[in-house]
Prior knowledge:
This protein is an alpha+beta fold. It has helices at 2-12, 20-31, 47-67, 73-91, 101-118, 123-162, 173-184, 189-195, 209-218, 220-223, 226-238, 251-262, 269-289, 310-326, 342-352, 400-408, 475-524, 532-558, 565-600, and strands at 362-372, 380-384, 390-393, 420-426, 435-439, 445-450, 457-459, 463-474. The strands form 2 sheets. Strands 4-1-8-7 form a 4-stranded antiparallel sheet. The chain has a 4-stranded antiparallel sheet with strand order 3-2-5-6, with no helix packed on it. A hairpin with a 3-residue loop joins β7 and β8 (463-474). α2 packs antiparallel against α19 (565-600) and α3 (47-67) packs parallel to α19. The radius of gyration is 33 Å and the shape is globular. It starts with a helix and ends in an 8-residue tail after the last helix.
Amino acid sequence: xxxxxxxxxxxxIRPKIKRRWLLVACLVLLLFNxxxxxxxxxxxxxxxxxxxxxxxxxxxxLIALFLRRNNNWKSLLxxxxxxxxxxxxxxxxxxDGVWIYPFVLVATVVTIVVYLLEKRRSREQIFQExxxxxxxxxxxxxxxxxxxxxxxxxxxxxxxxxxxxxVNDRDGGNYAKVMQDLYLITPDAEEDALYQSEEYQDLYYxxxxxxxxxxxxxxxxxxxxxxxxxxxxxxxxxxxxxKDGEPFADHILxxxxxxxxxxxxYQSLPETEAFYGRVHQELQTAFKDGTLEKRGIxxxxxxxxxxxxxxxxxxxxxxDALRTxxxxxxxxxxxxxxTGSPSRIETFRLMAGGDYxxxxxxxxxxxxxxxxxxxxTHLTAGLYDAxxxxxxxxxxxxxxxxxxxxxxxxxxxxNAEMCRFSFSIEGxxxxxxxxxRFMDENGQVFRELPMDGSVTGGVDxxxxxxxxALQTESDQALATKFYTHFVGxxxxxxxxxxxxxxxxxxxxxxxxxxxxxLMIRDVRRKQIPESxxxxxxxxxxxxxxxxxxxCMCFMTATTFYSLFYLYLAPAYALHLMFCGVAIxxxxxxxxxxxxxxxxxxxxxxxxx
Length: 608
């Protein structure tokens, strides 16, 4: 999907980057973006990794509609449908994607306005093209319509199946309203001063346990679940390093949900919605009559309310956020074993369709060589458990290196030509009592060696052996070894991005300034600015990047630390889109100018 999305974006900007090799260069820049294969994003079964392809498709399709606004409806329809599908997917996997709304809305409006301005003719021409214009405008609106339609379908499905039209309880439904209410409750001044001090600033306490107690006091409905909620808060707190009765960041919201479930209010969605609906009404009544005091201005149920000083701190964090994205700071891949129970890991393995998620099963692995000195004695080998039951045969393979070593010492042991062996058996380790038995041609035990690491080799009158390697490994460890090569390659690419990204950013900004200068020049000459489309889409990408970073800075200032590539993941795609379009458009323009100049000057000036 990500590779396909890169192709979509490259195809979308083709009207403004004419040279195919520049488009390929832009494609490559997007294709090797480290985020889709970084440890915290692409290597996890987690939404933050795959929002990359959604963004490329959304921005690519909306840009394509703008750049191709005068094309026929068949050409535009595919872009509109693909953009609407990607936007629907994004909105239903990211409840925190509010930052994308301005671009989607402004891009749609700008496309329609520019299209209508270009189509402005005499009254007669407008009348003749009226039907065609309406059809085009419908196509420009189609991505928004499809996204809204998908949201309605999901809500309807949830209503039919669960009994309430709730899509996501973090930003919709009555649970979200209650969480927003709890954020607004003014805490005790002394307690707030303590938990907002430098000692606790990294823990992001916003809704204290005492704040929940205030809600219990004014909401009889919430009071009915008070003890299970207290128990859940204590449980969440017990899992943290600092056990002070206050769950970290927004974990208290999960604790409240767990407590309400423990009180029996999660039997059905209508019942759950009704419960939180009553709590919301009771808390709102307490705010109105002054029983509870509000603090700040609430913008969303997923973040603390805006208070004095928050905006200043938000903007002060912006340079750090920008530096983190431009420098690809902290990003790396890793060969890390899967965690969790074997059954859950197996479930994810089946979902992924391959052996990418491996359960931790011990394996006893070993290798070495052994042979009988008597050339007429031919040995076979096998592994046996502690009860003497045979586990597996251990076949001999070529031991030419051992044979040649013996010959060099004047020892002609012909059995050494086929003396090497190796094994790997699941479910056993060095402490399992496994033995390696060598049998002669009569089926009698010739030698028996314990596979516990106590023997490494030996020689006597009739037998010579060596254990080269013997260890307990897990499937995870073996998988880790296998992927180490690919991880090294991925990190080499990531390091390259870390080195070239600052230069790319500088060049992109220069190209953006160039587009701005060209546009101003054409406006002064009363000409239609040729660079206007590129300037508009670059401005849209840049402002979207800044808005996303400001949202993450606000979250860091108020709710939890978000200036980390796990949460900043969409910013990297936006940054590379901006750099790709700006730089390769700029190169395309410079090459056109050079070509035009060469054609307009006498050949003698070029030494021809």
